[in-house]
């Protein structure tokens, strides 16, 4: 089950891990409140039960209440759950949120993952979020941690760098992992992920270098449009070779040397990973999103690659640029669930079922394997 599923980053990682183990996924339920993201999810996982809804529609009880009628129906309909994972909304925890940071009503949606664990009794629970989720004023991480322990889970948390998992960006994620499976120690699984060394070969040249020159680009390869002022700023950085825009060339609101957004209007480097990709990747005014060598910000295709989505994952059903930006920027890099899945799937004691096996084909990205259901 994938709650707060978005376009399916965590599911894709689980599918990759399952494929490596000779298995397929049976996605009993994937929930998101954005129709465009659900459409992309369904297009890539046609056998999944993906629905546009609120997680509260399925798990509507408070954390310690008796199970509600809706939750009893969910339990009966879903049945055995091996993997429960999700990335609750992170905007309320983010340092980029100056309005409701640490004290946003949406922050309590994190607790819905614990409630779902009570209802479904899955073998493994994984919850991801931004590192600053630990600072939430309501203490949602500790509350969830303690609740899962009372349910009989072994629980651990840590912060994992995505670059060390083979993703071409400096994104870091807070991960809570809980297990009821003998032989799966969440502390060991997470300490392995957190201790991995970064590999400098996973840079932008590796991730998007083949997309430098595209003839008649369409769809999610279409370059974003920039204002005249931003074109002038990009021309300056391209000609000077600078990665950071001088203070006097920034908008007046960004000329205060004390502000914390120094990467705004910055240019990316081919030899380095990108900064964290957000939904603002199409504008240099939203972060260090100027292409390393072109007079433009990143395309949706490039942002998806930087997030770790292989080319066989299709975003073609997303018709609006804004929808693409939101779902790609909010996605969880598949590498996270791929690596966690690789550590746990063999120990889940799965029983043979009637699910068709995945057919493996060469993908569009080197030696990886594409998944065709």
How many β-strand stretches?
9
Number of spatially distinct domains:
2
Largest sheet: number of strands, sense, barrel closure: 7 strands, mixed
Kindly state the mean pLDDT as a whole number? 89
Spans with pLDDT under 50 lasting ≥5 residues? 92-97, 353-373
Number of helices: 11
Q: For the record, what CATH class of the largest domain applies?
A: Alpha Beta
Explain the overall architecture.
With 373 residues, the protein is an alpha/beta fold. The protein has two domains: 244 residues, Vaccinia Virus protein VP39 (Rossmann fold); 116 residues, Alpha-Beta Complex (DNA Methylase, Chain A, domain 2). Helices cover 29% and strands 11% of the residues. It is built from eleven helices and nine strands. Strands 3-2-1-4-5-7-6 form a seven-stranded mixed sheet, sandwiched between helices. A two-stranded antiparallel ribbon has the order 8-9. Helix 4 packs parallel to helix 5. The longest helix has 13 residues. It is elongated, with a radius of gyration of 21 Å. It starts with a strand and ends with a strand. InterPro entries: C5-Methyltransferase, C5_MeTfrase, SAM-dependent_MTases_sf. It comes from Microbacterium candidum. Belongs to the class I-like SAM-binding methyltransferase superfamily. C5-methyltransferase family.
């Amino acid at each position: 089950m994938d709650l707060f599923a978005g376009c399916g980053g965590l599911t894709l990682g689980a599918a990759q891990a399952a494929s490596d183990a000779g298995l397929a996924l049976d996605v009993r339920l994937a929930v998101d409140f954005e129709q465009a993201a659900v459409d992309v999810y369904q297009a890539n996982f046609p056998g999944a039960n993906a629905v546009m809804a609120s997680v509260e529609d399925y798990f509507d009880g408070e954390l310690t209440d008796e199970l509600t009628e809706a939750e009893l129906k969910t339990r009966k309909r879903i049945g055995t759950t091996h993997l429960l994972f999700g990335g609750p909304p992170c905007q309320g925890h983010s340092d980029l949120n100056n309005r409701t940071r640490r004290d946003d009503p949406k922050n309590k949606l994190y607790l819905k993952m614990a409630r779902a664990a009570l209802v479904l009794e899955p073998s493994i629970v994984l919850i991801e979020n931004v590192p600053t989720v630990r600072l939430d004023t309501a203490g949602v991480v500790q509350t969830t941690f303690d609740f899962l322990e009372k349910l009989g889970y072994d629980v651990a948390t840590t912060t994992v760098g995505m670059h060390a998992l083979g993703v071409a960006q400096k994104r870091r994620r807070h991960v809570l992992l809980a297990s009821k499976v003998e032989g799966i120690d969440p502390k060991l699984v997470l300490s392995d992920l957190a201790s991995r060394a970064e590999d400098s070969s996973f840079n932008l040249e590796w991730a998007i270098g083949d997309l430098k020159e595209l003839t008649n680009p369409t769809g999610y390869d279409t370059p974003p449009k920039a204002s005249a002022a931003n074109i002038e700023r990009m021309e300056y950085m391209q000609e000077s070779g600078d990665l950071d825009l001088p203070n006097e060339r920034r908008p007046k609101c960004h000329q205060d040397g004390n502000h914390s957004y120094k990467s705004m209007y910055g240019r990316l480097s081919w030899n380095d990973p990108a900064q964290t990709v957000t939904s603002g990747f199409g504008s240099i005014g939203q972060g260090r999103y100027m292409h390393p060598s072109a007079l433009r910000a990143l395309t949706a295709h490039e942002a998806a690659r930087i997030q770790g989505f292989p080319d066989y994952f299709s975003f073609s059903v997303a018709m609006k640029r804004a929808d693409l930006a939101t779902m790609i920027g909010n996605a969880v890099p598949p590498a996270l669930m791929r690596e966690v899945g690789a550590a746990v799937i063999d120990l889940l004691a799965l029983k043979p079922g009637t699910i068709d096996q995945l057919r493996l084909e060469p993908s569009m990205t080197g030696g990886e394997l594409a998944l065709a259901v």
